[in-house]
C-alpha cells in the first residue's frame, strides 16, 4: 500500500486522530496513558487502543520506543506535513488567490456612499 494511502487511512478514523492529538499535546505517552485519553471520549479496551497505535505506526505517524519497562509512543509529524505539501498546500495556495480576487470583486461592485450626503 502507498505511503499516502496509509496516512489517509490512519487519519480517517476519529480514535486515531484523538491519539495523534493527545501525542501532539504531550509527546512520549505510554499505552495506559493513551487508553485513558481515549476512554474519556469513547469506551475502548487496551487491546483496541493498541490496534489503533499499530496502524499509526504502520503509517509512520507514531514512533514507539522502549524506555526502561515502558514503551513510549511519540508523534512523527513528517508524514502529515508531506500530505499537506502534496495535497493541501497547492489547493489552499490557489484558494488564497481566489479569495483575494473575490474580495476585489465585492469591493468594486459595492457602491460607495454618496459624498454629497455627508454633513
Architecture overview:
- It is a single chain.
- The chain has 119 residues and is mainly alpha-helical.
- It folds into 2 domains: 3-76, Orthogonal Bundle (Arc Repressor Mutant, subunit A); 79-110.
- It has 5 helices and 3 strands.
- It has helices spanning 3-11, 14-25, 31-39, 46-58, 78-109, and strands at residues 29-30, 62-67, 70-75.
- It has a 3-stranded antiparallel sheet.
- A hairpin with a 2-residue loop joins strand 2 and strand 3 (70-75).
- The termini are far apart.
> What is the average per-residue confidence, as pLDDT, rounded to a whole number?
90
What's the domain count?
2
DSSP strand count: 3
**Count of helical regions:** 5
Based on helices, strands and strand pairing, what is the structural class? Answer: mainly alpha
Runs in which pLDDT lies below 50 for 5 or more consecutive residues are: none
CATH-derived topology of the largest domain = Arc Repressor Mutant, subunit A
Proportion of residues in β-strands: 5-15%
Provide the fold topology.
Blueprint: H1 3-11, H2 14-25, E1 29-30, H3 31-39, H4 46-58, E2 62-67, E3 70-75, H5 78-109
Antiparallel strand pairs: 1-3, 2-3
Q: What labels would you give this structure?
A:
3 strands, mainly alpha, 119 residues, 2 domains, elongated, 3-stranded antiparallel beta sheet, Arc Repressor Mutant, subunit A
Summarize it.
63% of the residues lie in helices and 12% in strands.
